[in-house]
Structure formats: structure tokens, C-alpha cells
Specification:
Number of helices: 8
Strand order of the largest sheet: 1-2-3
Structural class: mainly alpha
Number of domains: 2
CATH topology of the largest domain: Alpha-lytic protease prodomain-like
Helix content: 55-70%
Distance between the termini: 43 Å
Order of helices and strands: HHHHHHHEEHE
Shape: elongated
Radius of gyration: 25 Å
């Protein structure tokens, strides 16, 4: 974690997203109805899905922060992957409705140019959602939180959606009314792709897929620096939401007694916990090896 206040931001990010998207639901919905802009109304519905997604994220952050119990000895961190998958499904379902509705408008020829004031609503939505994406992506990255990063991508998807609505309204008000539903279709496809990526990443986390190779390299480098470690027999780690659970089998001199082995294990754990701040648990096994005299 880069800064001391990153943990405080972790607890505030979902609330900010809920407040911002609740405002956008009301703002875009009312403006869309007043100007006759169906794309802006659809974008307001997209923001309502973001409110649900942020609420799910907030709940998952509360649950994942609980300490390990006898039943859940590794903690509740994987709940955040469930949150990511739920947000992904919300994006896919909501965008599918927008896709179908826009395609139907083109097929029936029921589209029409909205009032140009709708451009203001779309522009405000782009700016606010992009700001929320940058803020939440920073918080999620520094806290290693898949749930917050998923919520950030949700806001980025809404920014894309509003950008397409902005372009569509612009063309529609200057003589090309079909641009409105076409823009909505393009963005719907982009948002569906983001939703599929979120679900894929959530499945990887829930099935204990291998963590990033850079994390393993950092653990390996720290392990080799510990005095008494002659080598690393194997090293692996499983993602636990915001944290990693590391399992490492180190090679030590076969002439060491039990106490000396315990000292090496404790030194290794302290080294890893000090260097890598998102490790939640460490299992260390010792394998005796013969050390040839020099």
C-alpha cells in the first residue's frame, strides 16, 4: 500500500460511487424524459445498475474484512470475486436490454432527434464517471481489491456509454437521428465485453488460478535473502481477494536442529510480511539438504 490513507479510501470508495451514480440516475432520467432522448434514459437505467453494483461491492468489502474463523480458516476474501461476477452479470444484462431496444428502434424506424440540451446530460455523465473510474482504480490498485477495481471498470463502462450517447445525440441533432441508437448499440457491445472480462477474472480467483508472476518473483527474491535458506523447492500462492496466501517449501541444511529451523521460518515470515503488504498467510515447509563442505 503506497500511502497510509489508502485504507481509509478503501472504505469510502463504494459510498462515493453510490452517491454519484444515484445523482446520475435522477439527472439523466429527468433530462432524458424532458428532451425526448431515449438514449439518455437508457443511460440512466445503466447508472441504476451501477448503484446496485456499488452496493454489492460495499457489502463484499464489509464481509471480506471479517477475520478468519474456525469454519473459514482462510478468511472471507474470496467474497470479492463473487462481487466482481455479480457486477459483470449486471453489465451484461443491462447492456443486452439496451442493445435489443436500440436495434428494435432502428428496425421499426421509431428513432427521432432529441433536444440538444440532452448533450449537457451526456457530457456531465462522461466527466463524473471518468472521475469515479480514476479514483476507484487508484483505490482498488493500492488495496489490491478486485471488488473495487470491478466497480471502477463499471464506472468506466458507464463513461463509455455516456460518451456514445453524447456522440449519438450530437449527430442526431444535426440531421442524422439514426446515430442515436447506433451509438447505443456500439457501447452496449463494449460494455458486454467488459462484463465478460469481469466474470472471467472472478472465475479465475474463485478457482485459485495462479497469481501474477511478478508477485511470485518478489516472494522468491525475499525468500532467498533469508539467512539459512539454501534454496526454494517449490513456491505457490492463492488469491484471497485483496490478499495472497503463500505456500513455500525451502531447503535448509540437514544438520540444523528443530529450533534453528523454527528461527529460519519465523525470519522468512517476517521478511515476507514486511516486504509485501498484501500477504495474509504464509505456510512454510522445510526440506533438509546435504551441504557439501567448501
Amino acid at each position: 500500500m503506497r500511502f497510509e490513507y489508502c485504507r481509509r479510501c478503501r472504505n469510502q470508495a463504494a459510498w462515493y460511487s453510490i452517491f454519484v451514480n444515484s445523482f446520475l440516475v435522477f439527472y439523466k432520467g429527468v433530462l432524458g424524459l424532458l428532451t425526448g432522448c431515449t438514449a439518455l434514459v437508457a443511460d440512466a437505467l445503466h447508472s441504476s445498475a451501477d448503484v446496485i453494483g456499488s452496493t454489492v461491492t460495499l457489502a463484499s468489502l464489509r464481509i471480506s474484512a471479517r477475520p478468519p474463523t474456525e469454519r473459514f480458516s482462510y478468511g472471507y476474501g474470496k467474497v470479492q470475486y463473487l462481487s466482481s461476477s455479480i457486477i459483470g452479470m449486471i453489465l451484461i444484462v443491462g447492456s443486452t436490454f439496451i442493445l435489443i431496444g436500440s436495434a428494435t428502434d432502428i428496425w421499426k424506424g421509431t428513432y427521432e432527434a432529441p433536444d440538444r440540451i440532452a448533450l449537457v446530460g451526456a457530457f456531465v455523465s462522461v466527466v463524473l464517471n471518468e472521475m469515479m473510474y480514476r479514483y476507484q482504480n487508484c483505490v482498488g490498485s493500492n488495496n489490491n481489491s478486485p471488488a473495487i477495481i470491478a466497480d471502477a471498470l463499471d464506472n468506466r463502462a458507464d463513461a463509455f456509454s455516456s460518451a456514445a450517447v453524447l456522440v449519438g445525440i450530437g449527430f442526431a441533432t444535426f440531421g442524422f437521428p439514426i446515430a442515436d441508437p447506433i451509438g447505443a448499440i456500439i457501447v452496449a457491445l463494449m460494455v458486454i465485453n467488459i462484463g465478460m472480462e469481469l466474470i472471467s477474472e472472478a472465475i479465475s480467483g474463485l478457482t485459485d488460478a495462479s497469481v501474477e508472476i511478478d508477485d511470485l518473483k518478489e516472494v522468491y527474491a525475499a525468500t532467498r535473502e533469508v539467512e539459512g535458506v539454501q534454496g526454494v523447492f517449490y513456491l505457490r500462492a492463492r488469491p484471497m481477494g485483496e490478499t495472497l496466501h503463500v505456500e513455500v517449501n525451502i531447503e535448509v541444511d540437514e544438520r540444523l536442529n528443530v529450533y534453528e529451523g523454527d528461527v529460519i521460518v519465523e525470519a522468512l515470515k517476517m521478511k515476507l510480511l514486511k516486504r509485501i503488504d498484501h500477504i495474509s498467510g504464509i505456510d512454510v515447509l522445510l526440506s533438509p539438504v546435504r551441504i557439501e563442505p567448501v
